[in-house]
Amino acid sequence: MHCVRKVTDDLYWVGANEHRLALFENIHPIPRGVSYNSYLLLDKQTVLFDTVDWAVCRQFLDNVEKVLDGRPLDYLVINHMEPDHAASIEEVLLRYPKATVVSTEKAFMMMRQFGFHIDGRIEEVKEGDTKSFGAHVVAFVAAPMVHWPEAMVTFDTTNGVLFAADAFGSFGALDGKLFNDEVDFDRDWIDDARRYFTNIVGKYGPHVQTLLKKASGIDIKIVCPLHGPVWRSNLGYFIEKYDKWSRYEPEEKGVMIVYASMYGNTESAAGSLAATLVEKGMTNVIMYDVSKTHVSQLISETFRLSHVVLASVTYNLGMYPLIHNYLMDMKALNLQKRTFAIVENGSWACKSGTLMHDFLDQEMREITVLDERLTLNSALNEDKLPELETLADAIIASMK
Ligand code: FEO
Prior knowledge:
Elements: E1 5-8, E2 11-13, E3 16-18, E4 23-24, E5 28-29, E6 34-36, E7 39-42, E8 46-49, H1 57-68, E9 75-77, H2 83-86, H3 89-95, E10 100-103, H4 105-113, E11 122-124, E12 130-132, E13 137-142, E14 152-156, E15 161-163, H5 185-201, H6 205-216, E16 222-224, H7 235-247, E17 252-260, H8 265-279, E18 285-289, H9 295-304, E19 305-315, E20 318-319, H10 321-332, E21 338-345, H11 352-363, E22 367-376, H12 385-397
Parallel strand pairs: 8-9, 9-10, 10-11, 15-16, 17-18, 17-19, 19-21, 21-22
Antiparallel strand pairs: 1-2, 2-7, 3-6, 4-5, 7-8, 12-13, 13-14, 14-15, 19-20
Helix pairs in contact: 5-9, 6-7, 8-12
């Protein structure tokens, strides 16, 4: 059975929600699911913007068939070739033999790489090209590395609709609520939107900045992303978030304490540091057990907050493996402009502090590591409380 929503008088959301998938890209947990958005324009000619993941293709095809209501499909515009949006291209072409695929040179190259039979049915476009479908005239805007090199966005100059590809997307299934004004985004969606951006597109901040600059020159009324709600109001709220995230600026002054603790002693010290920070007036403190928190969540919170305390045991004379994994992910995602403090623990040959410091100092860019460090030998004892106080004071001083 079809499940569609009207976006404007002649534009329909024909995507689908995915609730069964546990891991997006087989790595990021999505307990609230995800939506794969596709949009169908009924102009003099009919135009489908992107397709969906293979897992929800049946729902999508029912939706397209319902909205077309017997009309042929004339065009399929592919803004992004990643299979979560492009896997159903061939199925669409099989069902709609008159449809021509409109996309970039790189996207067509990838379609061939993925084994799609598209030759003879393609129309290549590039930055600045326009195309009329009847009443609607669209402009194609290159968006390389947001999030793959072939990506583009399509702007409908007639009604101000931006088909934004992966930009302005979010994890989370829509469950009927298509528009940002039908949900409490700041309460229910922002954490998933941040986790989506930082883990999927976070590495490509400068490319997102380029796209934001291009977008600032056009009169966007509605943003239709490939995941998550459609934005038709308060666009500035989300654009400001994207601007911050892509410049690697924290949203808030605050401290996240990420601890690795085998028997609870490092955790206990992390808790004492948190309490000391709060007593000294820094109440925006949150603790995460690196062994129980998915790294995608840690990354998202690291983009949100200004300060990170790494509190870790020494393990096999090295870093605790999950702390190392977190640091490697931070580096891969290009995280910058944060202040770190270090708490290290080791019952003998305590090494984790120096290893974490050197990673931050040598492998990452624009990172400040505080000189003050709390070194524990097995557990936090009375004699170490002055060191803990000094570290808390240094963290607070660095926030001013
Ligand atoms: Fe949602 Fe880069 O694909």
